[in-house]
TrEMBL record:
PANTHER family in the cross-refs: VOMERONASAL TYPE-1 RECEPTOR (PTHR24062)
Alphabetized Gene3D superfamilies for the sequence: Rhodopsin 7-helix transmembrane proteins (1.20.1070.10)
Molecular function in Gene Ontology: pheromone receptor activity
Organism whose genome encodes this protein: Engystomops pustulosus
Topology versus the membrane: Multi-pass membrane protein
Transmembrane segments: 12-35, 47-65, 130-154, 174-207, 234-260, 272-289
Protein name as it appears in the record: Vomeronasal type-1 receptor
Pfam family, one: V1R
């Protein structure tokens, strides 16, 4: 009975994540690709959001789907090559969601910062090189995970070492203690550096927002103030994204620390950790769609256009 309940909760959780995450991230991708093609340009922050949506989708396909399929009783459907590819894709894209969210918060921090010599240099260089920065982040993550191609195999009847991560359809056998620890340290350093950086950037953004709020009290709004208000609304959205990520990262880390203190980890605990580790892929696109002005404007225009076409079609049909 306990096993059935765990699998039911697991199925509901991961199928919900898929049902929400895929359409929301696809909407972001399609809209921003459309903007890039029609307007020939995309704001740096929107470029970062496009990459974040793509990474979210790949995390869902490489982790959400296997978890969901496993929860309904499907087992051992991947071979060694497929296991290596899926494992590498998930780990790279999960790492990129951390790095890209950090980049988003740092970019917004630079936008709000005063125009001193140092900040002015960053204001000029970062937006122009945002694509190259993301390529660099991709390379950093790629260097961390060569073990995916070396040590990941499909589940089968073979002996594994005690340094093995048993996943749904695959085993990640690190073989030796040194490789196991080195991999864990590299990932921990990456995670805590980028999470720490995005937290500091968000704290600075909150400080700037608070200072701006005091400055505009009692001042009648003008076009310039309205423009500033748009910037600060975007900043609030970035802070919200970072807050969600840090909260989920905190839950993930707490569960991970707990697993280190017990000799036998419950499957339910492992499932919960994977779920909270993947939940950002469904929550972040909702926040982006709700708060991004460009997205909201285009989606509203498309909706109104669709309603007008539907109304005209009905009227034509009636008149005939």
């Amino acid at each position: 009975m306990e096993l059935e309940l765990r699998l039911i909760f697991k199925a509901v959780g991961f199928f919900s994540l898929i049902a929400i995450g895929i359409p929301c991230n696809v909407i972001i991708l399609v809209v921003f690709i459309h903007v890039r093609r029609t307007e020939k340009k995309l704001l740096p922050s929107n470029t970062v959001l496009t990459v974040l949506a793509l990474m979210n989708l790949l995390v869902i396909f490489s982790k959400g789907f296997p978890q969901a399929i496993h929860s309904i009783g499907i087992r051992n459907i991947l071979n060694d090559i497929e296991c290596k590819f899926i494992s590498f894709t998930y780990r790279i894209c999960r790492g990129m969601t951390i790095c890209v969210t950090c980049l988003l918060s740092c970019n917004q921090c630079i936008i709000l910062a005063p125009s001193t010599k140092f900040w002015l240099y960053l204001k000029q260089k970062v937006p122009k090189n945002i694509s190259w920065i993301m390529v660099l982040l991709w390379c950093i993550n790629g260097v961390i995970y060569p073990s995916c191609f070396l040590h990941v195999r499909a589940i089968a009847n073979y002996t594994t070492s005690k340094y093995t991560l048993h996943l749904e359809f695959c085993n990640h056998d690190f073989m030796t203690f040194v490789v196991y620890v080195a991999n864990g340290v590299a990932i921990a350093l990456r995670d805590f550096f980028f999470v720490g950086t995005m937290t500091l950037a968000s704290c600075y953004i909150v400080f700037m927002l608070h200072r701006h709020g005091k400055q505009v009290q009692g001042i009648r709004s003008s076009d310039k103030n309205n423009e500033k208000t748009m910037e600060y609304k975007a900043s609030l959205a970035v802070v919200l994204l970072v807050t969600i990520y840090v909260a989920l990262f905190g839950i993930d880390s707490c569960i991970w620390i707990y697993t280190l203190t017990v000799s036998r980890v419950s499957p339910g605990i492992s499932d919960a950790r994977v779920f909270f580790g993947s939940l950002y892929t469904a929550l972040s696109p909702i926040v982006i769609i709700k708060t991004n002005k460009k997205l909201k404007t285009i989606l509203m225009c498309k909706t109104k256009k669709g309603l007008l076409q539907s109304t005209n079609s009905r009227m034509n049909t009636t008149s005939e």
